[in-house]
């Protein structure tokens, strides 16, 4: 027999009901915010404003973007939403300008040598990603044995990293790879400037899952004395173009990680479940010397922090994104700490929080 609730819900007042209705509109229509952002990128609005000197009026944009004049009033409404949601700034004279967020969406602008972030927005707002999110309720109802495939795998028949994705859906595979490169390449410059002690004392480093070696090359450029290995799967290493500054190793991190004073896992562990993370970290521990000899694992990943205001919501969205698209998750400090302990590490330190991410040193 169902337990009787001792609490009865108070009937909302009229004022609360109309507010609730407005809140529901906002919640259920807020998918139009990323759609407007994607539309702005496809039309080239941030790039046009940049080329017009960083500020532009509606008529300037209609002309520069070669849009039919009949669309001007509609573009004005799009620009108003983009300004209200913080993608652009606007003033009373009807001039639109770039803010740091839209600066990241300007074609050709390089931040620390990184590509703009347009590829990421275009991928996550594509039908491939949206369809996976739309399959979430069906996914919840299915009782599937471990390891649980993501809603993305259920809908598209392959995981994001799987080679078969290139055959099943080449367009989706291309979108994902471009998005991943834009996402991963950004930020190492800031880490090098903000976290001086992270690499300076190291003689050697293995960038585990280091992809095409972009991050490792930036580190070696800043610290030429560091001997740097880049470990990735053979299919990735085979395609990497080497300039001789780093040593590429084709392999599987679950089997072996090239030894070095430190192993770095930058934006890796959030793709994996807890058990896999423990196995990866256990392999890292085998690859490094004792703490006294300077051994450490460097992790760059989100540290979910409920006291971080709006950043907390971003971190939760990134967590649900991991649930929808991968088998991974985002973790708070307690969750990180127990994974480190289970993998046999004795201590850790959160060196720095940068945006939504943290830089963690983990000691054997
Ligand atoms: C999200 S990226 C890592 C990002 C990279 N560390 C960066 O910050 O630029 C994931 C990478 O992990 C690699 N990878 C996946 N499974 C692997 C494994 N078992 N062993 C080694 N590399 C792996 C993929 O090929 C891909 O290049």
Automatic annotation (TrEMBL):
Active-site residue list: 270 (proton acceptor)
Taxonomic lineage: Eukaryota, Viridiplantae, Streptophyta, Embryophyta, Tracheophyta
Protein name in the entry: O-methyltransferase ZRP4
Keyword vocabulary terms for this entry: Methyltransferase, S-adenosyl-L-methionine, Transferase
Residues annotated as domain O-methyltransferase C-terminal: 136-346
One Gene Ontology biological process: methylation
GO molecular function: O-methyltransferase activity; protein dimerization activity
A Pfam family it matches: Dimerisation
Boundaries of every O-methyltransferase dimerisation domain copy: 25-106
PROSITE patterns the UniProt entry points to: SAM_OMT_II
UniProt keyword S-adenosyl-L-methionine present: yes
């Amino acid at each position: 027999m169902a337990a009787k609730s001792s609490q009865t819900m108070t009937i909302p007042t009229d004022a609360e009901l109309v507010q609730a209705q407005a809140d529901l509109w906002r919640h259920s229509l807020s998918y139009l915010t990323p759609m407007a952002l994607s539309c702005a990128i496809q039309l080239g609005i941030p790039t046009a404003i940049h080329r017009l000197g960083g500020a532009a009026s509606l008529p300037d944009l209609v002309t520069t973007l070669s849009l039919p004049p009949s669309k001007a009033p509609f573009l004005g409404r799009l620009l108003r939403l983009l300004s209200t949601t913080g993608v652009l700034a606007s003033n009373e004279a009807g001039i639109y300008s770039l803010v740091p967020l839209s600066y990241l969406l300007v074609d050709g602008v390089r931040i620390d040598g990184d590509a703009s972030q347009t590829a990421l927005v275009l991928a996550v707002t594509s039908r491939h990603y949206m369809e996976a999110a739309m399959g979430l309720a069906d996914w919840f109802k299915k009782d599937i044995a471990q390891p649980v495939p993501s809603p993305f795998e259920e809908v598209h028949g392959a995981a994001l990293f799987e080679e078969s994705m290139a055959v099943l859906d080449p367009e989706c595979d291309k979108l994902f790879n471009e998005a991943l490169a834009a996402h991963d390449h950004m930020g190492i410059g800031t880490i090098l400037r903000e976290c001086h002690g992270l690499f300076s004392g190291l003689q050697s480093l293995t960038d585990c899952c280091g992809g095409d070696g972009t991050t490792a090359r930036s580190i070696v450029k800043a610290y030429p004395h560091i001997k740097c290995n880049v470990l990735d799967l053979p299919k990735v290493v085979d395609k990497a173009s080497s300039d001789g500054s780093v040593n590429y190793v084709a392999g599987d991190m679950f089997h072996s990680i090239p030894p070095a004073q430190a192993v770095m896992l930058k934006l890796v562990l959030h793709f994996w479940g807890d058990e896999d993370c423990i196995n990866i970290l256990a392999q890292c521990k085998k690859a490094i010397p004792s703490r006294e000899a300077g051994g450490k694992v460097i992790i760059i990943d989100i540290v979910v922090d409920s006291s971080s205001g709006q950043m907390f919501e971003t971190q939760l969205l990134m967590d649900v994104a991991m649930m929808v698209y991968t088998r991974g998750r985002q973790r708070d400090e307690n969750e990180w700490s127990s994974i480190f302990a289970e993998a046999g590490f004795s201590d850790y330190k959160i060196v720095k929080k940068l945006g939504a991410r943290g830089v963690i040193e983990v000691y054997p």
